[in-house]
Specification:
The chain is α/β, with parallel strands linked by helices. It has one domain: NAD(P)-binding Rossmann-like Domain (Rossmann fold), CATH 3.40.50.720. Helix content is about 50%, strand content about 15%. A 7-stranded parallel beta sheet has the order 3-2-1-4-5-6-9, with helices on both faces. It has a two-stranded parallel sheet with strand order 7-8. Bound molecules: NADP nicotinamide-adenine-dinucleotide phosphate. The site of NADP nicotinamide-adenine-dinucleotide phosphate has 29 residues, from helix 1.
Length: about 260
């Protein structure tokens, strides 16, 4: 896909991976619809996108877990630009701790934001894309989408749901001209993701890497897009899965000082 002039809608564009992705698409001359809950931050991202080369960058107040708002975000994109070439479902939240102690409202928030939101925006975007037989839907999962991470059980479950939904939908849409792709970030620096979760241990990659991977995936759509170290972990999972449950559990127990 040619990105110059293409219309890209990004959820969760006010910080981290979403912000870096907006800027990366802007540098290719894409027109942007940016959604998140913090308008002030979104406005600052949009301004930098225009400076970086986006001919048009609009912002929309969006709580993706609210179905009406998620549908309205897609409707606004189609109203503003009369087209939608790429939908990046990136908005997401985490929570770290023992599953048995996770507050109910946090469970609901993670499921609504990380999973239900993707279903709603996708359902809203598909009629337009299918009618024109083109479009790319990129869902931001996580390494936790195939390597379930102890102490973030519900988060891992939502990301498994994202992967399952995306792969099944990809099959439903084969031959339709609409592509569904999954991107799997690892621990990513330059994001607000781990704020209030006791910090991060271990290797990290910058948000710009993930953003570039997302842009590459829009240009050359593929089922699963992973940076190289994640691909290795993916291959190792069926063999070393049990060992990794134990090892990651141990590391996290230490970092949470349990
Ligand atoms: N950082 C990592 O290590 C990592 C690793 C693997 C996967 N990921 C995934 O990458 C994605 C982006 O996260 P990030 O790392 O960039 O973290 P981040 O800096 O915290 O960004 C999360 C974004 O999602 C938005 N958001 C949260 N709840 C929302 C809601 N209900 N409605 C609309 N927008 C919402 C936030 O904006 P507002 O608060 O303004 O709404 C923000 O723009 C997430 O799906 C996350 O699961 C991150």
């Amino acid at each position: 896909m040619r990105l110059k002039g293409a219309v890209v809608a990004i959820t969760g564009a006010s910080s981290g991976i979403g912000e870096a992705t907006a800027l990366a698409f802007a540098r290719h001359g894409a027109r942007l619809e940016l959604g998140a809950r913090r308008l002030e931050k979104l406005n600052s991202v949009a301004q930098r996108c225009r400076q970086a080369g986006s001919p048009e960058a609009n912002v929309r107040l969006l709580d993706v877990g609210q179905r009406a708002q998620a549908r309205a975000f897609i409707a606004a994109t189609l109203r503003d630009f009369e087209r939608l070439d790429v939908l990046v479902n990136n908005a997401g939240v985490g929570w770290m701790g023992r599953a048995q102690q996770m507050p109910e409202e946090k469970v609901d928030e993670l499921v609504a934001t990380n999973f239900k939101g993707i279903v709603t925006t996708t359902q809203a975007a598909l009629p337009w894309m299918l009618e024109r037989r083109r479009g790319v839907i990129i869902n931001v999962a996580s390494i936790a989408g195939f390597r379930a991470t102890p102490y973030s059980a519900v988060y891992a479950a939502t990301k498994h749901a994202v992967v399952g939904f995306s792969h099944a939908l990809r099959g439903e849409l084969s031959g339709s001209g609409v592509k569904v792709c999954v991107v799997y970030p690892y621990v990513t620096s330059g994001t607000e993701f781990f704020e209030g979760m006791g910090g991060v241990v271990g290797p990290q990659h910058p948000a710009a890497w993930v953003a570039n991977l997302i842009v590459r995936t829009a240009r050359f759509p593929r089922r699963d897009a992973m940076v190289a170290p994640i691909r290795v972990a993916h291959f190792a999972e069926p063999v070393f899965g049990g060992l990794m449950d134990h090892a990651i559990g141990e590391v996290r127990r230490r970092s949470l000082r349990e």
